[in-house]
Each structure stands twice: as structure tokens, then as C-alpha cells.
Protein 1
Amino acid sequence: MKASILGYGTYLPRYRIPREEIARAWGGKGRGENAVAWVNEDIITMAIEAAHNALTHSGVRPDEIGAIYLGTESSPFIELSTIGVIGAALGLRPDIDVVDFGASTRAATAALKTATDAVCAGRIHKALVIGSDSRQPSPGGELEQGFGAGAAALVIGEGPGVAQIYGSFTYATSFRDTWRATSEPHVRLFEPRYSREYGYAKHVTEAVQGLLSEMGATIPDYHHLVLYQPDERASRGVARSLGATPAQVEAADLFPQVGDAGAALVFLSLAAVLDVAGEGERVLACSYGSGASDAFAFTVTGKGKAAAMTLDAYLKSKDYLDYTTLLKLRGLLKDPSPPAKMGLPPMSPLISREMSELLRPLGAKCRRCGYVNFPPSERRICIRCGDTSFDTVLLPRRGQIHTFCINFYLPAGFDESPLPVIIADLEDGTRHRALGTEMKTEDVKVDREVELVVRRLATEDSVNLYGNVFRFLRQAA
Amino acid sequence: MGWNRVAVVGAGIIKFGELFEKSAEEMIEEAYLACLMGVDKGIQPKEIEAAWLGTCRPGLHGYQTVGGVSLVGAIGLAGIPCTHVENGCPTGSDAFRNAVLGVASGVYDVALCLGYEKMRDNTTQGLLGLAAQGHPVLQRGETAMTMFAPQAVRHMHEFGTTKEQMAMVAVKNHYNGTLDPYSHYQNLVTVEDVLKSPPVCYPLNLLDCCPQTDGAAAVILCRSDIAHKYTDKPVYVAGFGMGTDVPYVHEKEKLTEFVATVRAVKQAYSMSGLTPSDIDVVECHDCFTITEILNIEDLGFCEKGEGGRMVERGETQIEGRLPVNPSGGLLTKGHPLGASGIAQMVELYWQLREDVPSQDPRRQVELRKGNALQHNVGGRGISNSVVTILSRNA
């Protein structure tokens, strides 16, 4: 094998629900916290930010990417690929390999296996592999205490890169413990103890031992063990029975801070390990989902380029939610009035035409006067000088607030209220208008720094509309 | 400039308010009849050769009544040419401008211009919902407030304008509204009332915003050389202008002015040969308190940035140096979109003739040069403005 991780990127939502807060609503006790997708976040928006970070970290340009493989168990759609929006937001080419992996929390490692094979076969040179999940438990159920959200992306290609992938092993049976029918909104669990022992522990152990045996290696050969964590304890038990020391699993222990982020979790934990691992160190990772595990072996080969946002920064920049807000985010507590109809539904031709330029976002820079027209398809004649020759430019995502307002009185269908409207000057001087998100009213000020991120703007006829919104820079609290 | 002079010879308006008991057609009919009655020496309906209708959202009261026929049909004038004008908040004044052009061209001698809006048959949520129909991404979340409030924030930031100064616009216009029997609101408010009213869109509070109002108003225009057939006190159209601007807020160069207003008023001053110091009274577009502050700057009545202080000094009060919105303005009289511009014409027609219908003598402004300025600004991206200068001088 000669495939490597060329770079990686992560994303965690800003908001956390303390498990104690869930226990307050339903009884029992809770320790630690779960990352929770904000009202305008889903697996698509989280995947976009993680993939941006991975591309930056790898130094790979979007047009070099030859495949995008996304693994999730919580896609908003049964039919409708999530990847089109992600590709448009990242500026990927249309003539690439595109596959949605789903139906399990091991979907992202299945995607990684496919990417590794495609690179090793020489069919694909560089692949983007993403794990993204926002897991939906039923309120009051056993799973609610542990379900989290997040995304992580790997750029896979020929090495050396950050870590070489030198082995994988899959173990799958007909075991069933968690499931969600297409007609159901929430993941269900048959029985926690049965699941932990006969599902999680058995499959992870078999996959890890299978890989070790195939490679002629033993647990002590690895500096770090990255195991999927369905709860606080299960991975520690498996590690112990495999003969691993607590030091070998420490760096990958994200469950207390993130919760079970499904398909994203093993990649997130791998990123946590790679952030601290030294060159030459070996890492063993293993996923689990509904009766199947994929195990991988890596050797750390380098550090990659500096990422705009590291996992550590996402872990530290956070705010806490109460349980009522959590129910609103999950759509379980909502205003029953129908949302105000947009002028165009999200599947309109206009949105398809403008999707890429609005999401990236792109501008048309006038060759005569230098004004950046936006969006390019609506300005074929420069609005400032009337010239008709342009260069397409990528708009910077960061800027400073020029002016703003905060709307307390909105039509139905807006999830954030009060809702800021931000008019900012981007780093290249282009003025840009977008809604604000995750902003407290008293914090919004002229000149404050903001950045554009892709979020869900609306849902109509069950289809989501995505676009850029401004948020404050994520900084450790 | 080669145009036949035009005069206003009749004006009529209905009491603005929440007219749940009246249909759009009743409002139109009432304004039309008031206008006919307002012609001093009388006029026969058959003398009206053409009509212009201003209404901005003709489907608001439940079904689409687009087109000029909804005016002539309601007033028994089906048969004559009638054009429906829709141009955002300046709809009424742009209908007036087009009627003026019709008469100025020499094609028509006498024309009717009527504006109405039935705002209150719809819910406030329903009206807000209409705002959701702009560009699904670029204008997501825009409502009327979000198109003016950012200007307030930037004006406060650059020029030190205060929320108190903005509140003083509401205090003044509420006072004026209590003198105007046609005004929707008939109550006084204090600066503290405005500041303590619920936040609607920071930095605007409820009393910084105009209400949701039903209304209709009409004027009759004719060639100025036949005006004395209808009245001994005609009011002349001295000049007018219309300016536009780029439609998206991110494309605007300055967010402390409405450049459409600057462009419109430049044309109107040039056409009339008048300057800001020749104007005795102004009816301008105070949909929000901040808008009136921007307007008095954009219209040339003070330096850019001085609007808030000009209000604070009391110069825009009815007895001040330059009375602004003696009718109570949109803030108090109400803002039935298509009617607003025509209602401003009606007010200025009365003021210039010194016969405002009120028991209270304080309602009449003091005339020095006999010129008045009307102004609207709005439309998609607040990118169009109409200014009309009326004069009692031929």
C-alpha cells in the first residue's frame, strides 16, 4: 500500500449540551457534554467546514481532488445526494468520483477503505473522505445522554503526507443493535449491555485482532489506539482486554467532550491523535456500526500545513445550551405556523445556476475599475463602470462589520430570532451582506471581525437551501 | 425644458387607519369623490381624460387586482385610459409623476391620479411573509426594517446620531398627527415612550416605525393654462425628478444616505430653478425615524451627518425653520404604500393654498416663498426615489 493521509480537518459545532442538563429533564445522572448541531447546521454544513480545513492542512487545491466519499448515518435525505452542495461549496470539479456512504456509524471508514483502494489502484490521485453526523436520539431515551455531532475530513493520496495507511481489516456480521427505519426520525437501540458486549466489543476486537494478525503485529507496537466510542466506558474495556495501556487510548478519548458523533467520531479522534503524535509513531484505529468494524493501521510521517482551525480550538470555543433550546434545535419543540414561502423553492433553476458562485463565494472583478461584482451571473455589466470584461475571483471569507441590524420581528420560518443582518467589508474590500448566526445581540458591533460559513438558510418542500452566513471568529472562551 | 406646465386643481383623501369595515373599492371611491368635491369650481367626471393608479401590492387584501382597470372600474370611469404604476414605496409619487408627464406632453388636458393600499386586510405576519420573496439567498431575511436599520447604525457610528434624536422625529410627527384629522395615530408620545417601546429591529423600536395602515388619496391635474377654470388657487408642479440606485445593499457605496434621493432632488431643483432655501415645507418619506434624518440631509436641507442635530434643534417642527411632515408623515398618518405619495401631494396642496382642513390654526405652516417639496424613497433595495416640487407661484 502507498496511500497516505495528506491532511485532515475537523469541525465541531459551537454548542454543547451538558449531560447533566439532559438528566435534569429526565432523571438520572450525567457527566461530560455532547456537541450539538446548531439550528442551521446539518451534516452538509459541518462537512463543508471540516473539508475546508482538511484542504488547507493538506495544501491540496480543490481542483486536484478526484473523488469525494462521504460517510454519514444522519443525512437529511434518503434520495438526494448530499455531495453536490459540498462539491459546489468547495469548488470541486464535476468530473470526479462521488459516493454517499450511509446506513451506519462506520460509513466514514467504509469511505476511507474505498478511497485507499482507489488511490492504491492508481485510479484516483487525491480523494476527499468525510465523516459527518448529527445523531438524533429520541428524547428521554437511553441514547440521548451520549449522542453528539461533528465532522472530520481526510485528504487521501500518494504519500508521504501526514500519515501513511499501511493496512486495513473489516469484520462484519448480521448482528443488529441500533437501527433507524427510513420512516423514523430517531435512532433506536435494542439493549445497551447486549449491544456493548456482543456488538461493539466483539466486532472491534475481531477487526483489531484480524488486522494485527494480518500484519504480524501486536498492540504494544502501536503508540495510539483510536477506538469508536459509543459511550463513556466501552472503548476502555475493549482496549484493556486487547492489552492496551491507558496511555495508548488517552489522546483519542473525545467522548467526554463531544459525545458519540457517529461516522465522524473515529476521524475526529484520529485527528486528536495526529495533532499530538510524533513522526514515526504508529496508530491503530477502529470504527463500529450495527454489526461491522473497519480497522486501519497508520504510521505518522509529518505534520502538514497549519490549519485555520484545529480540533483543539473547536473544543475550546463553545457555549452551553439548555434542554429547551436543544429540543428546539432538534425540531421537537416548534412554532406550528407554516413558514413563509420564499419567492423560489430550493430546487428552482435560479438556485442551481447560482449555487456555486453563492456558496464559494465567487465574484466578477471588473478589469477596468476593479470593482468586484456579486454574484457574477447577475452582473454581466459592471455595476460601477459599465465595462464587460471580468476576472473570476474567490471572495475572502473574513471581514469586518461595516454596519448591521438585528431583527426582532420576522416572518415564520426563521430559526434564529432575533436575527442579525450583517453588512461587512471582506479582507479584499468587497462589501458583502449575509445573515448573522450564533451571535448574541449585545456582541454585534461595527468593526467586529466576522467570517462567512455555509449554513442552511431555509427548508421548503423538505428541501434545504444553503448559503453563507456571518459568524464571529471561533475563539477559545 | 420643453414641457407644458401642469397644475393640481383638486385633492382628496380619506381618513387613514385600520379600515376593516371598508373594501379597497370603497376606499378608492371615497378618495375619488373627496377629490372631485375638492375642486373649488367643480368638475364633471367626463372631463377626466386619463387616469393613473398607484398601488404597490394589489394582492394584499386577498386576491390580485392588478391593472388600471381596478381604478376606473371602481369609480364608473371604465372607458378612459388608465395605467397602474408599481414602484415600491414611491408608487404614489411615481404615478403622479407619470400623470404629470401625460399632461405635460400635451396629450391629455385633465388627468386623475389616485393611490391606495389595502394593508390591513392582511396579517402583519402575512406582510412580513411577502418580504421573504426576495432573492432566496442574497435577500434572505430582508424585511422593510432591515433595509433602513443598518443605515441608522452606520449613521450613529459615523456622525454620532443618537436614538434620542431619532425618537424626536417620532415625537414631532405624532404631535403633527394630532393636528391632522386624517392621520391614523392621534396621540402624543415622548422620547421616553419611543425609547421604551419594544425593539423591532435594532436600533429601531416600535415607535420608530410607521404603522400598518389602509388609505387612499387622489388629485386632479390639468394643463396650467386651464387651471383657473377649476380653481382660483391652483398649485403648480414646479419640477420633479426620479433617481435610482443599485438594487443590492452590498453594492451601495455609502450606507449613510440614499443616493436615489440625491439624484431625484437634483433633477427637481434643476427643473424648477429652486434651491433648498426656497422650500417652505416638506413632506418626506419617514417610514422610520432614521429615514427622515437621512432625507433632510439627502434633500439638501443640512450637511450630511447633521440631520439628527437639525431635528434636535427643533428646526423641522411645524413652527420651525423648515416644517417637515406637518401631516404627521408616514410615521403617524400611516403608510398605505400606493397612497402615501399622493397623500403627501394632498397635504402640500392644502398647505400651499393655506386651507388645511383643521380646526387648529397651528396646523398651517408659515409660507414665505410658496414652494413645497414632496419626497418618497424605497423599492427593491431602497433604490428608487421620486421628488416633486409644488408651488403656488405660476
Protein 2
Amino acid sequence: MLTKLAAGLRLLGRSVTDRLWRLGFASRFLLATLLYSGMALRRFGLTIREIYFTGVLSLIIILVSGLFVGMVLGLQGYDTLQRFGSASALGTLVALSLVRELGPVVAALLFASRAGSAITAEIGLMKATEQLSAMEMMAVNPIARVVAPRFWAGVVSMPLLAALFSAMGIFGGYLVGVQLIGVDDGIFWSQMRSSVDFGDDIVNGVIKSAVFGVIVSWIAVFEGYDCEPTAEGVSGATTRTVVTSSLAILAADFMLTAFMFRGA
Amino acid sequence: MPSEPLIQLKDVSFSYGPRPILQGINMTIPRGKVVAIMGISGGGKTTTLRLIGGQLRPTRGEVRVAGHSVPDLDAPGLYALRRRMGMLFQFGALFTDMSVFDNVAFPLREHADLSETLVRDLVTMKLNAVGLRGAHAMMPSELSGGMARRVALARAIALDPMLVMYDEPFAGLDPIALSVVGRLIRTLNDALGASSIIVTHDVHESLKIVDYVYIVAEGRIVAEGTAEDIRGSAAPYVHQFVWGERDGPVPFQYPSAPYREQILREPSRAH
């Protein structure tokens, strides 16, 4: 009995130590990525190319999802608000929900699934097919040439995608609330304008999405670079990117919300 | 081996944790020569290349390339040395998101401050040397194994290196591609005045083109000499390796329990 308990504790200890070690390694990797970012910024064409792959090619999923989320918010919001005779506040509800919360969070979750997994798979496959080793042997640092441009592309793309998600969501809310249900057009927009604060709501939303951009990009490039160079290793790393990013986004969202909107 | 050595490995050992990979290796690669490191898979051949390229550090011993002690070089020093080396990986390791032209141009664009016109001319010359000038616009996914290896070879020699390392350059090639790649290695080495190291277990093709051979087994050099020496060797391991004999010092059977005992064991205890 005692032996089994000790074995269980040993297993738990090893698992915790492994995770801490990995977190430390990931932090050192992030530091190296930042240190070697000179090339990604100096030869900005490399980063622009990655922005196309991670940002522009994610537009469809972001815009369509934003539209539907906004439309659902319009329906649900109207249903709840009209019970309290506040249907005129629909514009406020849709805009605040999207700008403060749903825009950054849902866009980041979609970004992690669409672009994060693609970044991990690409870097992982480059490792598995010795392309990263070949680069090293050509005296080119793969962190500077491959990792940093993808990292910065994610960081730049994420706030823009979140803003577009929110804009499409508001448009979806307008379509349902004003065009379908018949809420007054002027009230919808004027209520929204008067209650959405640029600093407290929009800037904080942008800060959130920038933080999520760092988190998703960091996890995606690290998992790709650190994966086992086999088919199974790449597949496992891709899954880990989506799962870890999603959990990290939600946890970070709670912390950021607690700091940003307390008492507001 | 009379000429001045480009590479010297003295008493080099390397291990992954407690598992020894190389034990007390001594090796000399002269300038201008093509040297093969042969042996069965897992014998430590690729590890030797990685030690020379500075991707691994020896646990003991000295690795010197062009007068530099490779393990003692800092990152800029190592990168400066690697700019004078080319390496051909087992399956080419071409960048899959770049065309043949861009793959060959990659080291030139990264390291040489040249105009695009000059880059185009140099890439065309390198592709012409490997016979693939007409394939410049193709993507790596459109190339056969032999063509990919030749493009990788053009990329490896793009900066006119002093040393070219080949990791299993003949693996998976058809006889024609194999012969083409073999002849290219020799021709390019002589034309560039470079030195070449070929890690391979393809005995017959490599013995046609090399000047000197090291045979590595279980992390040690078990034989060395010219192609003729190796062909004529009576040492049991060398003989088995060169002539591909089924049994010998390298047993056919992986160590296991006696066959009779295992086959007659009760089904419930079969494993």
C-alpha cells in the first residue's frame, strides 16, 4: 500500500517537474525569439508574408464567425432585454459584449485553431524533414529566419482579426435587431455610441487581443520547434497547440478582465 | 595520407546520456579528397558528421576543422565556419515552400550581398553543374528523389564551400540517379578544390568515387584504407559489410531467447 502511494507520489512529482522544466524551456525560447527578432523586423517582407498566411487566410473564418455570433447576440439580447422593456439597449449590449469579451476571446480561439495549428504543423514538419537542420548548417539561425517572423505575424494579426470579428458581430447584431426584429435604427446606433467608451472598452479589448496574440503565437512556434520529428510528434504538437492555447486564452482573459474592468 | 588535413578528430567520444555512440574515434580528412565513413545503421556515422558541423559537442576529444577547435567556437565563430561548409541531407531537406531556384539562391541571399542579377547567374551556373538548369521553376514536391538530391547538392555548393558533407546521399535512389549523384560528388569536389565526407552504407557506389574509407561499427573505427584496401580486406566485419553477407560478426538475429525454448513455450506465456 505504502509502496503504491510512494510510486504515485513519485509519478506526480515527476509530472510536475517535467511541466515546470518545459515551461522554463518555453520561456527561454520566447526570450531567444525576442532576441533574434532583428531579422523579422529588418527584413519585414518575411513577416508580411507570414501575416498573409496567418492573418489574411484566417479572414473567412473570422468574418463569418463574427457575423453569426453577432446575429445570435442580437436574437438572445433582444429576447432578454424586451422582458425588462429595454429593447432599445440592444446596440449597447451587442457592442459591449463583442468589444470587451467575445471579439478578443472567440477570435483568439479561432485563430489558435486555424493559424496556431498551421504554424505548429509547418515548423514541426520543417524539423521532421531536416529543413531546420539544413538552415543551421547553412549558418542561418532558424529562430531568426523561421520562428520570429511567424511569431510577430501572429502578434500583429490577432488584434486586427479581433477588431474585424467585433465589427462583423456588430453588423450581425444590427441585421437581426434592426432589419429583422425592427428595433429603431437611430436608437440602436446612438445607444451604442453613447455607452461604448474608447479607453475602457475598445482599448482594453485591443490590449486583450494583443496579449492573446502573444500567447497563441508563442505556444504555436514553441510546440512546432520542440516537437518530436515524427508524424506522431507533429500531430501531438498540433493538438497541444490548440488545447494549451485555448486554456491559456481563457485563463488570461479572466485575469485581464479582473484587472481591467473591476468596478467599472 | 600525405596532404595537410582539413579535419582532424582526435580520441573523440560522444554519448547520449549513458549510451555511448562514439568511443575514441581518430580520423583525418585531407584537403581535396573524398572520404567515406561507412558502417551499418546506428553505428555513429551521422553523429560524426554532426560533430564536425558543430551540431553536437563531443563528450571527450578534439574536433578540429580548418585549424579551429569546433566545440570551443562561440555561435558567431561557428556560423562563420559553417558558411565555408555545405551539407547534403539524406532526403535533400529542400525548403518545401520555395522553388528550386529559390532553394539554391537561399544561402547566397542570406550571406552574400549580391544583386539579384548576379544571384540569378550564380544559381543558373550551380543548377547547370547538376544538370537541372531547366528545372529552376519547379517546386520540391514536383521533383523525383534523384532530382531533389541534385538540387540539394547545388544548394550545398552555392557558396563554393571548402568542405561538403553528404549524409546518405545514395539512399532510396534508382541505379541511374545513384550513378549520376555519385559522379557529381566526385566531379564537383575536384572542380571546387573542396574536401568531401560521404556518410553512407552503399558500399559499391561509394568505393567507385572515394579516396579513403573509414568503417565505423559500434562507435569505433574497425577498418580504414583506400577503396582497394577495403575491397581486399579479409577482416571478418569488413568482409561481411562489403560483400553483404547474411551472417558474421554482425548477427542476423537480434539477441533473443533460444528459438526452441520460445517456440515450445505454453501459449499463455508466449510473450
